[in-house]
């Protein structure tokens, strides 16, 4: 995170390229190729992070969906795919304690 903030402060964009550093069978050839090309000389050392830096054009934030698209209305009666009455009651009590209900 600090490296990305430092890059941003310098007007650079930073994108992590971590897929080839993952240690699972499907990535084995890529893992070895990256370590052979850029890896440390000591046997017990490993690369922790690999990134791409650029000074490309600024891009705005990606579109976001609103909260309502992620949250379903709970079934307070306890029937059908919602939360049961016990969960609803706990939620109401917690909100009352927080002063927001």
Summing up helix and strand content along with how strands pair, one would put the structural category as mainly alpha
Number of DSSP-assigned strands: 2
The portion of residues forming beta strands comes to: 5-15%
First-to-last CA distance: 36 Å
Please give the domain count.
Answer: 2
Strand order of the largest sheet: 1-2
By DSSP (H or I, 4+ residues per run), the number of helices equals 3
Oligomer: single chain
Poorly predicted residue ranges: none
Written as H for each helix and E for each strand, in order along the chain, the element string is: HEHEH
Average pLDDT: 76
InterPro entries: Nitroreductase-like
Region (Disordered): 73-101
GO molecular function: oxidoreductase activity
Biased composition (Basic residues): 91-101
How would you describe this structure to a colleague?
Residues 91-101 have a biased composition (Basic residues). Residues 73-101 are annotated as: Disordered. One of its GO terms (molecular function) is oxidoreductase activity. The protein is mainly α and 101 residues long. It folds into 2 domains: 2-54, no CATH class; 74-98. It has 3 helices and 2 strands, in the order H-E-H-E-H. Strands 1-2 form a two-stranded antiparallel sheet. The model has no long low-confidence stretch (mean pLDDT 76).
